Amino acid sequence: MKRIFGFALMCALLSVAALAASNSQTINFSGAVQVGTTTLPAGEYKVSWTGTGDSGKVTFEKKGIAPVTVSAKIVDEKNGHTGISTDTQGGKDVLKTIVFSKVSLIL
Questions:
Q1: CA-CA distance, 77 to 53, in Å (whole number)?
Q2: C-alpha span between 87 and 96 (Å, rounded)
Q3: Per-residue b or e along 15-25, where b marks 16 or more CB atoms closer than 10 Å to that residue's CB
Q4: What is the pLDDT of residues 13-45, one digit of tens each?
Q5: How many folded domains does the chain comprise?
Q6: How far apart are alpha carbons 55 and 51 in whole angstroms?
Q7: Is position 45 within any domain?
Q8: Residue 98 and residue 106: Cα distance in Å, rounded?
Q9: What is the phi/psi pair of residue 58, to 5°?
Q10: 8 Å CB contact between 95 and 66
Q11: Assigned domain for 99 exists
């Protein structure tokens, strides 16, 4: 019985890890971008998201930099490309949208 329980627990943990991995991607910023009140320098970031619709949260992580989490609208949709859109405000590029193949993150 312990062996079956252990196997079931291991399968459940692997399933959770697989589901969590589907809610993260990497993106490369060629220049500095403003995210919320934080300016992120150029580089590759792991972008992960939780929640759905208007109640989502997006986190940007890069080694050596404190993670940045902002509220976002998460839209599940198929896109033909990956990219970002920014808007220049006060001389800074402010991140507005990240588009991945199966989701759009609207900040």
A1: 12
A2: 7
A3: eeeeeeeeeeb
A4: 444 444 444 799 999 999 999 999 999 999 999
A5: 1
A6: 6
A7: yes
A8: 7
A9: -120, 135
A10: no
A11: yes
First to last CA, the chain: 48
For residue 15, give both structure tokens: 């399933």
HEC sequence for the chain:
CHHHHHHHHHHHHHHHHHHHHCCEEEEEECCCEEECCEEECCEEEEEEEECCEEEEEEEEEECCEEEEEEEEEEEECCCCCCEEEEEEECCEEEEEEEECCCEEEEC
Strand-pairing partners, residue 48, are: 24, 59
Q: Is residue 13 part of a domain?
A: no
Closest C-alpha to 27, from 60, 74, 51: 60
Residue 3 falls inside a structural domain: no
Q: In this structure, what token pair is assigned to residue 27?
A: 């993106």
Domain that holds residue 87: 24-106
pLDDT tens-place string over residues 38-92 = 999 999 999 999 998 999 999 999 999 999 999 999 999 999 899 999 999 999 9
